[in-house]
Design the sequence.
């Protein structure tokens, strides 16, 4: 039987491909940004569910933009797509964020 973590990883990959396609096809107007943000949030949630499930078997240390995965077989660094997508959305909405901060 296939481990559920692999199914979640497949879902995250499919969502990432959808996100890349949306970025290439959509205008970056408010509607386009909202769709991209919604897909990004879905990827972020799935990504951190995967990391949580992996912590049941290995030690995970989250660092800025990467995470360290440690097991009895060694350790490996990987890109933290959750943090990367959060930063991407901040850049995507930067004009709106700056406008709100100046009005505030």
Sequence:
């Amino acid at each position: 039987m296939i481990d559920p973590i692999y199914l979640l990883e497949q879902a995250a990959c499919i969502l990432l491909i959808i996100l890349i396609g949306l970025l290439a096809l959509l205008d970056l107007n408010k509607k386009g940004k909202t769709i991209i943000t919604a897909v990004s949030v879905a990827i972020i949630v799935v990504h951190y569910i995967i990391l949580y499930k992996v912590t049941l078997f290995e030690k995970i240390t989250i660092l800025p933009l990467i995470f360290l995965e440690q097991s009895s077989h060694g350790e490996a660094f990987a890109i933290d797509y959750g943090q990367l997508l959060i930063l991407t959305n901040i850049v995507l909405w930067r004009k709106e964020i700056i406008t709100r901060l100046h009005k505030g």
Observations:
- The mean pLDDT is 90.
- The radius of gyration is 16 Å.
